[in-house]
Specification:
The chain has a two-stranded antiparallel ribbon with strand order 1-2. The chain is 54% helix and 11% strand. It is globular and about 25 Å long. The protein has one domain: Orthogonal Bundle (Arc Repressor Mutant, subunit A), CATH 1.10.10. The chain is mainly alpha-helical and 74 residues long.
Length: 74
């Protein structure tokens, strides 16, 4: 695991997606809904649900608006 996950001491994530997303953001500095959909071959609604759940857990935050929206580690 990467140092971010060790520092956050995340022991349990609701989905396998969440851990992979956090690792992806740590490596790439950000993620967009479009990238998330492509990575996991999921639909827009599911991608937004996953990102919302990570925001509710205070693990990521949204930056930008509209087409410029992306998510970074908090």
């Amino acid at each position: 695991m990467l140092k971010f996950l060790d520092q956050m001491k995340i022991t349990k994530l609701a989905t396998d997606y969440e851990g992979k997303i956090l690792i992806y953001i740590e490596k790439n500095k950000k993620i967009t809904t479009k990238e998330l959909k492509k990575l996991f071959n999921i639909k827009d609604t599911r991608a937004k649900e996953i990102l919302k759940e990570l925001m509710n857990k205070n693990l990521i935050e949204r930056k930008g608006k509209g087409r410029n929206t992306h998510y970074i580690l908090k």
